[in-house]
Structures are given as C-alpha cells and as structure tokens.
Write a structure and sequence with these properties.
Elements (H helix, E strand, L loop, with lengths): L2 H20 L28 H12 L3 H12 L1 H29 L4 H41 L1 E3 L2 E3 L2 H6 L7 H17 L8 H27 L15 H7 L3 H8 L5 H7 L6 H27 L20 H35 L10 H21 L4 H9 L1 H16 L7 H37 L1
Antiparallel strand pairs: 1-2
Helix pairs in contact: 2-8, 2-12, 3-4, 3-10, 3-12, 4-12, 4-16, 5-7, 5-13, 5-14, 5-15, 5-16, 7-13, 7-14, 8-12, 8-13, 10-15, 15-16, 15-17, 16-17
Membrane topology: Multi-pass membrane protein
Subcellular location: Membrane
Pfam family, one: Aa_trans
Amino acid sequence: MTIGSLAPKTEKKKSSRSSRKNKAVVSENAPLLPKSQESDSGFDDFNGASFSGAVFNLATTIIGAGIMALPATLKQLGLIPGLCAILLMAFLTEKSIELLIRFTRAGKAVSYAGLMGDSFGKYGKAMAQICVIVNNIGVLIVYMIIIGDVLSGTSSSGEHHYGILEGWFGVHWWTGRTFVVLLTTVAIFTPLASFKRIDSLRFTSALSVALAVVFLVIAVGISIVKIISGGITMPRLFPAVTDATSIVNLFTVVPVFVTAYICHYNVHSIDNELEDNSQMQGVVRTALGLCSSVYLMISFFGFLLFGEGTLDDVLANFDADLGIPFGSLLNDAVRISYAAHLMLVFPVVFFPLRLNIDGLLFPKSRPLVLDNFRFASMTVSLIGVIFLGANFIPSIWDAFQFTGATAAVCIGFIFPAAITLKDRYNIATKSDKILCVVMIVLAVFSNVVAIYSDAYALIKQNKTSRE
C-alpha cells in the first residue's frame, strides 16, 4: 500500500476531527464541553467518543423506569397489540431522531434547544428547555423514589413492604429510607454527576445496560422454569373491550411508551462528542435495536409470568413468593440489579438537565465547563432539589404519567415534527411531512385522552376514599 493511498483516509480523519472542532464556537447555543481543547488547557486531549461508548450512553438514556411499566401495558392492550405498539414506538422514535439529526446538520445546531431556537426563535428554544427540565426532574425523582423503595421499603395503604436492607438486617436508622437515599446521593449520584463529558460515563452506561440484561435473564429463566412446571397459563392476546371506558383506558399506556423511548434530549450531547459524527444515525439505530429487544422480551416474559396479576410496576411483583426454588434469592437479585441500574442511569439523564437549566438561566454566559463555580453550584443545587422531592413526595406515579403525556411527548414527537413541518432549509420530503402530521395528531389525541382518563380515575378515587 502506498503513502498516496493512505492520504485520503488521513485527510478524511483530519476533516472529521476538524469539523467536530469547528462546532465548538462559544455562543449561547454552545454545548456543555467545547470540543476544542485550546480554550481550556486544563483538560487532556480528547479525540472524540467511540461508537460503542455513544451507543451505551444513548441506550442507558432510553432504558430507565419505563422498562418496569411495559409488562403492564401488555395487560392493558393484550399480548399482540402490546408487542406491536413497542415496535411502532421504536420506529417513530428512530424517525423523529433522524429528522432532528438532519435539521441539526443543516442548521449547524449543537443542542436540542438551539435547534428549536433556529426554527422558532427564542420562545421555541425556551419551550424546549422547559420541557426537558420538567421531564428530567420528574424522571430523576422517580428514580430516587424507586431506589429508596427497593433498598429501604415503602408503606402503602397502611401496609409496609420491606426493602432489601430491612429484610437482611432489620429496621435500623441506617436501613431507613432517608439515610439510604442520602448515602446513595453522596456516594454515587454526586461523583458521577460531576463529570463534564457525557462520554466519561460510557463504562457506567455499559454496566447499566448489562444490569438491565441481568434483570431480563432472571425474568426469562423464572418464566421457563414455571412453564416447565405448568405454573403459567396462556396470556390474553387482545384487549378486553367491554364499554367506552375500557376503550378510553387503552390510551393510558401511551405515556408509558413515550417515557420508555424518550432520549432525544441527549442526542446532541452524544453527537457533539462523537469522533465521527457521520456515525450518529448508526448509533441511534443500534441503541434502539438493543433497547427494543430488551423491551420486547421483558414485556413478553413479564406478562407471561404474572398474567392478569401484573402490577403497574412489575418490580413490585418480585416482592412475593415466586413458587420456585431459590425464589427469595432471585427476588433480591432482580431488585438489586434494577436499583443498581437506575443508579447508573441517573447521571446520564442528569447531564442534559443541568445543560438546559444553565442555558435557560444563563444564555449569554460562557460555556458551563469553563466556570467551575457555576458548574459545581448548579450540580449540587439540582441534586439537592431532586433529593428533597424524592423524600417529601410520597408517590409521584400519577405525576409521572402526566409528565409523560405532556413534556415527554413534546420532546419526543411534537417538537421534531414541528421542526420538520416548518422546514426552514427545504430538506423535508413530502412523506416526511405526512408522517409528521400523523405523529402530531396521534400524540395530541392519545395524550389528551390519557390525561382525561388519569384525571377521571384520580377524581373517582378521591370520591371513593371520602365516602
């Protein structure tokens, strides 16, 4: 091979790194960490994130608390429509992210908010930032509450469900919810949230995905054992529709599907750090393929295992006797692996939250990474707010549903569709625009019905409790 034949490849690699560095203009749309290390000699040379690191970070963004609620969606929709809905949501997510990337390249945007600002001005930018803030704070509080429930237990309807630590060591001050959540916050959340590059989380993200797979393997193994022993009946294939109310209730699963796939707010952060950003679409498809496979299997086997007894949070089903050898040990393994998974998801979701709050509050300031005091203050303040929310809000599953039906659906589908329909650079095809109209109509209609159904259920529940 001659030196001349190597030149084009060398030039291409230099061009890729050069284009990646050129995106690092310090402006109000600048990413958290500039690519050009010339602006801050305090950092080591960073040549860009790898393909696998980007895949793990995006996959970790996707797989969060939503995985626990997916088996319950199959109970609502039936096995066949439920699995089809998971695949449909994966397709719509891939398409919406593809549109975001296409318009990002055309407008040379470096953030989701910057892309919205490019199409709809400062109000569009602020709307995107507010939606990300609302969605991510809600999600992170839910994560912290679930971790507290799993490790320290929870009380509901006058009954206390023991957590892992209480079950092992008994009730002590150091197995109590407040201390355990505080220790987790100080020892795990704060150090991981202090990284200034999302690529620095690639190893914890890989471990997080592995823990989700561990949960899946255990669930599949339990299902196979119970099938062999004849302890599983045929699950319902289609929804049980008896009246208008039962039809309306079918739409309550939409926020769960949306929340399960929402990852758009981290696409730009991952893209900005990718060594070769032409690989971004491949990163998205690989991550979505991995997550969809996990979702399909855990939904199928979770519903197969618990049937009509599947709870809204399938993790709660692993609090009872499974009726198999070593059932108690497997229950603990499932809960520990999932709690550890959420601990490692936390910093990946926290990263864009801090970035968007900084952009909303300090739009004209220099990049956050160059201001250590602002970075540390914002990190500590946000973690403190999330910690207080997790300790003083007893249960926010209903609020989580409303968040999924509002902020999350805007981030995932309505905003990308609106950017495409605005088509500032005349790059959208006719089929793109038709699909975007369908996405907006489906999103608005299904989520309005879901909000109505949830609100009606809450009002009815309050009336019943008063009587």
